[in-house]
Amino acid sequence: MNFAEIFASTITNPKVISAVSSAVLIILLGFYLRKKDIISKQTSKMLSVLLLTVSIPALAYTAFMQDIDTESLTQGVNLLIWGFIIYIVLIIMGKFFFMNFTGDKNKVLHVLTIFGSTTFFGIPIVGVMYGAEGVMYASIFNISYRVFLYSYGYIKMSGLKFTKDNIKSMLMNPIIIATFLGLAVWMFQGYLPQMQATNAEGLAVSAAFLRIDVTAPWLFETLNYLAKLCSPLAWIAIGAQLAEIPLKDAFRDKPSLQYSAVKVILVPAFILALITAGSMMGIFPVNHVAMATAVIMMATPTATVAAAFAISFDKEALLTSNCSLLSTILGVVAMPLWVVVVELMKGFSIFS
């Protein structure tokens, strides 16, 4: 097929249309509900707490409830390595994106560029587009994200040394616990105590006792219901957040406009080129789903935690708020384009 045919088939793909339209419409719903005061600011915050402590951990764990094979293990390991490479590269190069700014302004823009809202924005989109496989890869990719967010991000914003309390808060995070527990079950399921059970097709199978999709389907379905809340709740929370900040003032702020373009356009384009070049040269090659996951995760707007660091340590609080707002708006527009781009690359057989 030529470019026009591949492009047409991509943008008319029901999965692509569903993922994009669902995200945009539910974000608009959240915006409307907050503007009309149908949900309060406190309600929006509680939605975020529910996502971070219940829904996303359930999504992270259940995504790993699948059989392991050499291909999926290789993809997971390669994507984990790419995650660390990407964040190290951005830490080194990120400050050069904002050489026209100095002092705290340069520091804040640099840190906010590195860390996107992968939890609230990235994982829901990946889940809708690529299902459990995509969520599993997103959870693996997010390991490096959280390592650097709670170390480098904290140190740069606070000016302090990395503390035991900060390490504890990172390790005790419900999402981290669920991710590492699920990853351990997935990787070592052949070595865990086995149980006889009946699978969804009614066949007798042997599975690791922590493979709850087989050994405890009643518990798996419970977690699955909670996991399915992730996307709609996250998008409503994003829409409600957008309703809190005056748009007119934010759009007049040139540093925020520059940051937003770098964050949701330049950075994912660079990551796409980097992973593509590496895979074509046989350097930690990844498949289409893994590559798409990395690009979508890096195209996300400002991370809530990174913004909270900046505001808490009195580092350009107004600039941070404007960056968060504008990058979210631009992210809503740009995300559909990135979904189309990565699907086009599959159409050209660049990735399997």
From TrEMBL:
One of its GO terms (cellular component) is membrane. The chain crosses the membrane at residues 16-34, 46-64, 76-97, 109-130, 167-188, 264-284, 290-311, 323-342. One of its GO terms (biological process) is transmembrane transport. It is a multi-pass membrane protein. The keyword Metal-binding does not apply. It comes from the Bacteria. It is found in: Membrane. InterPro entries: Mem_transp_PIN-like (IPR004776). It holds the Pfam family Mem_trans. Its main location: membrane. Keywords: Cell membrane, Membrane, Transmembrane, Transmembrane helix, Transport. PANTHER family: AUXIN EFFLUX CARRIER FAMILY PROTEIN, SLR1864 PROTEIN. This is Permease. It comes from Oceanobacillus polygoni.
